[in-house]
Amino acid sequence: MPRLSFLFAASSALAILAGGVSARDNVTIALQLEPPHLDPTSAAAGAIDQVLYANVFEGLTRFTSDGSVVPGLAESWEISADGLIYTFRLHKDVRFHDGTAMDAEDVKFSLDRARAEDSTNAQKALFADIASVEVVDPTTVQISLSQANGMMLFNLAWGDAVIVAPESIEAIKTTPVGTGAFTFDGWVQGDRIDLARNPDYWGTPAKLGSATFKFISDPTAAFAAMMAEDIDAFANFPAPENLPQFEADPRFQVLVGSTEGETILSINNKQAPFDDPKVRAAVAHAIDRQAIVDGAMFGYGTPIGSHFAPHNPAYVDLTGISAYDPEKSRALLAEAGLADGFTTTLHLPPPSYARRGGEIIAAQLAQVGITAEIINVEWAQWLETVFRGKSFGLSIVSHTEPMDIGIYARPDYYFQYDNAAFQQLMTDLSGTTDPDTRMKMLQEAQDIIAKDYVNGYLFQLASLSVAKADLQGLWANAPTQAADLTAVSWAK
Prior knowledge:
Layout: H1 3-17, E1 26-31, H2 46-52, E2 61-63, E3 69-71, E4 74-79, E5 85-90, H3 104-115, E6 130-137, E7 140-145, H4 152-155, E8 182-188, E9 192-197, E10 210-215, H5 219-227, E11 233-234, H6 243-247, E12 252-267, H7 277-285, H8 289-297, E13 302-303, H9 326-335, E14 342-348, H10 352-366, E15 370-376, H11 379-388, E16 394-399, H12 420-430, H13 435-451, E17 456-468, E18 471-472, E19 489-490
Parallel strand pairs: 1-10, 1-11, 14-15, 14-16
Antiparallel strand pairs: 2-3, 4-5, 5-7, 6-7, 8-9, 9-10, 11-17, 12-16, 12-17, 13-17, 18-19
């Protein structure tokens, strides 16, 4: 019997002996991916945010379940008329989990660290427009920009922008210290991470006394653990084919929502022959998106033709640009001097959308003469080989960062797309605040990368979670990668 279940059973028995019933205040949430470490400000792994965002770490602003941006550690802010100066007023009496005070000096330290020349922050570009961060007084901090940026409050809500204590940095990857409603209570690598309610939380206290994140990578094991009720919920359930069984079982609830996850066939734009746009176009036209959604996700997912979420008001359906057309794919390969095809690698990280989708895509590519050698890798290997090392031909990954089309303006990003016109467009977008103008620019950006066939755009990942029927407060949608437990509780 799992540890938490045993403790609950024991405490329930004692309560009954005492003449009462003990209310349950712990939860076990399963995830497929385990974080490589626990510092959200120095890695691209979304698994870190899944565990720690809002629960342990907080930023000046934060995302809510519907994707809107609301105050976090900053209770309010003022923006100068020219959009260049942001003055944040911090909540008073906020303390880090180690008991030290959180004040404007910590905000300055965190943002200066994130944007420093030697920063390892995976989203360093979020802070590129910050010219300086100045402490006005202990509860007031002023951020000055080099140019107006209509996305600054949005950028500060990312997990990469959370506020950290200078004293905790040396051990942050294994012992995270934040300001959130939960404190870090231990990590058994390969198994689980434990959190405990923060008794000194500055805001609304967590309803749960403790929480455990359990890591189960195998879809079959995930199904078995949920059916046996060894776990209370599985966020981003990896076996969508099993969802009808949970829907028919009154013990469970199935949460179906949207995510920010653009699932793509990543292409190394600097590696031959993918440095030829005709070859990238050939790859795109060889892909039957709907077959991948049906075969890998059992119908859950929305086909996309560019790197943009369909629920965003600026979204344009560009799937027709790279419509499934094997004959056109073969013709493009012939024009590129590859009539006999070629061989490349296809690196697949653990998520089922990647492993299952990869098998389907490899078969589709083979139909036009492209042999994709499948290489299954663990998440840490993917980060080292593909993301940092750029040693790959093709890969499959879901980019779950919110509103992240700006990554295409970074030539050193792992798929190595270098387009000066696109880069200028993103620079202009950052300095634009008019909503209608921003919408047109975002639509133009989608069109550019779709017509450059930078990557193979597959589908928008659905948020699919399973939970016990009486667990409430879980997010159905995933506007950022987070299993926010701050409002989760058990129905009475």
